[in-house]
């Protein structure tokens, strides 16, 4: 018997509608922490063995004939340029149309793509693919836990499965689960019944980690709902820095019957509603975070980690704001390190000057609209790299980073001792290799400042005495009640127990 022929493609973007830089076709061509754009056969070779949903799908068995179509993923950022989106989706649709007879399709999507013209990017991808293959073709989709799902999107997908960890250590596993669900649909010969629900409150990113409560318990309770006639239940805690109607947490459930799917969805919704009181926001002002870190470091046996979530490039922020760096200098922090600050000009200058050289730097802060300035200080170049290194942590381990010219700069202004890693390709710090490959062992430091919101926890929490979350400038606003939303649905609460959105002020 011939194996079912399944077309596979990945097209991922997490769009922060508050980010100042648009996301263009060229950004999808670039390789960053993940591979750059490709079509056809190279997809299979490139993706085998990585912690990426597409990889998990590919690696999960030999019971399907896989037809590799496309991969495109860009670092989170501003609106996806409409022309670029149209070109990429056209490639996917053309190659699916040319793929010959298919039994199913798997799409590795993010769930929070917003283009110039479409608030629901993934829904539009599915509409265009459906226009090619028709309504009956089984289409399995995996999503990031930070998806903002619409009812229309869930309606167009045959099955949706979503990461269940944040940090996302289960990306490959989620792809494998999509494959298993698709296999069940093919075997059954018809789709499962499905149910979709939106949660009435939004959860700020920094409170979403599944390594911490209440999400840890929520995801355990969710998994317990599965079994028997409940085929699959998944929750997306949502991506708040997106001013779109459907922004926020949502869930999907699949069952043998509609009643079963609805019941499972309602149970998970009840779990989310009961947990609303348990969410809290860990953000503290940057200077206070540094003060506490210096104090705690006196007796700690491991470094104090300070996250800078509002400048998390992984959520589309610039990665170049200087709020925490200024606080470190002002407070005279010693044995402190910070990575990664996106500053191609300063990195280039450091490469000109060379190791051991000193120069007057103007570090970061290139977007004054975000409320911060460059830090003007003399620096000593301690180490240089070409930004090409292998990641080693639980999330990106095995991935090759290509971050362009990088440098470690020592700042001793006013008696502080702060090492800043500057780089040329905007990237979240979710892996210790970002420090280690350029001469800094974070475990030898008192304070490690990390431009990330949550993903860093996977690799950094085990080496940290404690983790503080600093409130500093950045394009990934984490205080939902203070964000100038205009397009949310009326009544959704801005954070757990937060105020209800009543529409934009006129
Ligand atoms: Zn995510």
Low-confidence stretches: none
Helix content: 25-40%
- Cofactors, ions, other ligands: zinc ion
Question: Hey, roughly how much beta strand do the residues contain?
Answer: 15-25%
Number of helices: 14
Largest beta-sheet characterization: 9 strands, mixed
The count of domains is 3
The rough form would be described as globular
- How far is the first residue's CA from the last residue's CA? 64 Å
Mean pLDDT: 96
Widest sheet: strand ordering? 10-20-11-19-12-18-17-14-13
Backbone structural class: alpha/beta
Described by its quaternary structure, the protein is: single chain
Radius of gyration: 23 Å
Number of strands: 20
Produce a short descriptive summary.
This protein is α/β, with parallel strands linked by helices. The chain has 14 helices and 20 strands.
Question: What does this protein structure show overall?
Answer:
The radius of gyration is 23 Å and the shape is globular. Helix 3 (53-59) crosses helix 7 (171-188), helix 4 packs parallel to helix 5 (121-133) and helix 8 (215-225) packs antiparallel against helix 9 (258-275). Helix content is 27%, strand content 22%. A nine-stranded mixed beta sheet has the order 10-20-11-19-12-18-17-14-13. The chain is of the alpha/beta class and 506 residues long. Strand 5 (139-143), helix 6 (151-156) and strand 6 (159-162) form a beta-alpha-beta unit. The structure holds zinc ion. Zinc ion binds at residues 144-146, 168. Zinc ion (ZN) is lined by residues 144-146, 168.
